[in-house]
Specification:
The protein is of the alpha+beta class. The protein has one domain: Outer membrane efflux proteins (OEP) (Up-down Bundle). The chain has eight helices and four strands. Strands 1-2-3-4 form a four-stranded antiparallel sheet, with no helix packed on it. It is elongated, with a radius of gyration of 38 Å. This is RND family efflux system, outer membrane channel protein, TolC family. InterPro entries: OMP_efflux, TolC-like. It comes from Arcobacter aquimarinus.
Length: about 425
Amino acid sequence: MKKIKLITLSLTAFLAVNLNALTLDEAVQTALKNNFDIQSKSYDYYESLENVNLNKSNYLPKLDASYSYTDIDKPNTGVEDQSATASIALSYNLFNGFKDLALKESSQYLAKASSYSLNATKQDIVLNTKSAYLNYLDKQNAKETYESAYKLFKQQYEDSKNRYEQGIIAKNDLLQVQVNMSNAKQNVVKVQGDLNVAKFELSNILGGVDLTNETIEKLDEESIQISNYDESLLENRSEIQALLFNLKSIKELEKSAKAGFYPKVDALVSHNKYYDGFSSNSIKTGEDNQNIAKVNATWNLFNGGYDDSMVTIYKTKYLSANSLLSKTKLEIKLQYENAKSNLEVALQNLETSKLALLQAQENYEIVKNRFDEGISTTTDLTDANYLLTQAKQGFNKAYFDKYLAISTLDRIFEKEVN
């Protein structure tokens, strides 16, 4: 009955609830709000949206106003020595080889690609947050384990010291226990440093939130559950979708480069008014104003092969991006296979580590009782303590490996962020 109680207490330590502590869900939400990588990607996305508006402006007319003043010291006959011209002109591009359409479509595709990239970054941060959170809890349990080992060595040292004073054991045995106790104390100091670093790592992912005086909640098993994972859904990954829209964008840019092979047609309407110097009087010779309307068509016949080179460049970019897409699909498939295997191994290790912990706890009690009766030696008790510490560490690692594997699969299938 005692064995079951020991395991129950060990598991209960993982599930203890502190209502005032930072929970895993709260950590994830804080990271999504404050993480600097997400903020940077968000700005990239906002820029891509503004780039769409920028390219839409090509469909609107352009309105320009101008004013010029001329002063001639020796004017020719019939020419005013001082004159000024004010004009307002409205221009509109009627046709430019579909370049504006291609650039608009390209910017829209890039905006969609940026949106998917932002989502992928959020997914990565969710996984990184969970990993850092689990790493902190792992270090915290390691600290408790080493503190427990130190406590047992300290107790063993007191018992051995009494036995040495009674002449039951040799001084060398006492010194060996003292060395083991000192090593156990060093492990406690080291793991405390690891715990502090783990908290700083979690703080950085949360955007620099001060966790110095914050208690990190023990893991709630309900917060991470194994889901159903459909391999066919891997094609929907944000990274793949972003690359697909990037390919479409490059294709449109290729079309924009081909616009150089077409003529361009522009329309212009302007109103011009002429003045005698800086005065508001119209000049005496000539009309006081002119209204001009014209349509201008141009066609570049040769520009040194620039357009051909740009088309070739975009075709090459397309092939490069397509290769990256194929590589990304293979990498995602590999991620899935690794994560699936890691989960299977973690689940098996967890069951094995439970039995190992149970055996180590039972073994320590047996050896401790035999030591108290003078049957076992200090070396036997030391070995039993080491075995118990290793079993606890193995259980801790297997426990958190399980939830890290689940979190990794959730990230691969983008379970967390919609």
